[in-house]
Design goal:
single chain, about 120 residues, mainly alpha, 4 helices, ATP synthase subunit I, transmembrane, cell membrane, transmembrane helix, membrane
Length: about 120
């Protein structure tokens, strides 16, 4: 299994770089709503991934003790709804489609890291 803590640390670094790009795009291009949407989506997506990492740790401990625990899907769904509700409420500041794209960015990073680890272990 992949080390989710290591991946999360990489994602935080990537998030700061992405947010810097979004701020630059917001200031210097004619598409500020798109960059603001990607930024807010990426923040909520990283928050969702952090919840997943934390819940996986609890799940592992509970499994070893023989207890049952959920993985916090409800909290992640609520966060995703908030990531879309904010751009719907303020369409002059945020783009809805780009916030959904930003929401999926951490999971794309997770997929890329999984492929990288797979090919690295094969060699």
């Amino acid at each position: 299994m992949l080390d989710l803590h290591r991946i999360f640390e990489k994602q935080k670094k990537g998030l700061f770089f992405l947010l810097a790009l979004c701020v630059s795009g917001w200031f210097f291009t004619s598409y500020p709503t798109i960059f603001a949407g990607i930024g807010i989506g990426a923040v909520f997506g990283t928050y969702n991934f952090w919840i997943l990492v934390r819940r996986m740790d609890k799940f592992d401990r509970s499994y070893q003790e023989g207890k049952r625990i959920s993985l916090g899907s409800g909290l992640r769904f609520a966060s995703a709804i908030a990531a879309v509700a904010i751009p719907i409420a303020f369409p002059e500041y945020f783009n809805v489609v780009s916030s959904v794209i930003g929401l999926m960015i951490p999971y794309v990073f997770l997929f890329i890291e999984a492929l990288y680890s797979l090919f690295k272990t094969e060699k």
